[in-house]
Write a structure and sequence with these properties.
Blueprint: E1 12-13, E2 42-47, E3 50-55, H1 56-75
Parallel strand pairs: 1-3
Antiparallel strand pairs: 2-3
């Protein structure tokens, strides 16, 4: 399944997990292991000079904070 995604940069940082194993909230398998690049919810974003890959659900808190900061910046009197 990983051969479907062409990844030229092998310097990806794994998502949050235990001992490199990322747990999936949607997996029906017993250990609930993340499929990473084989999953539609897997997102890789540039973070500095590295590419950080995580589930889209784990990016939500970060994006919500950044969105709130942008709204506060727009609503401040100038």
């Amino acid at each position: 399944m990983n051969d479907l995604v062409q990844n030229n940069n092998n310097e990806t940082v794994p998502g949050i997990g235990v001992a490199g194993q990322v747990m999936c909230p949607f997996s029906l398998m017993a250990p609930k292991m993340c499929l990473k690049q084989g999953c539609e919810l897997w997102v890789e974003l540039k973070y500095g000079d590295k590419t950080v890959g995580r589930c889209a659900l784990s990016w939500l808190p970060i994006l919500m904070i950044e969105t709130r900061q942008a709204i506060e910046k727009l609503t401040q009197p100038q």
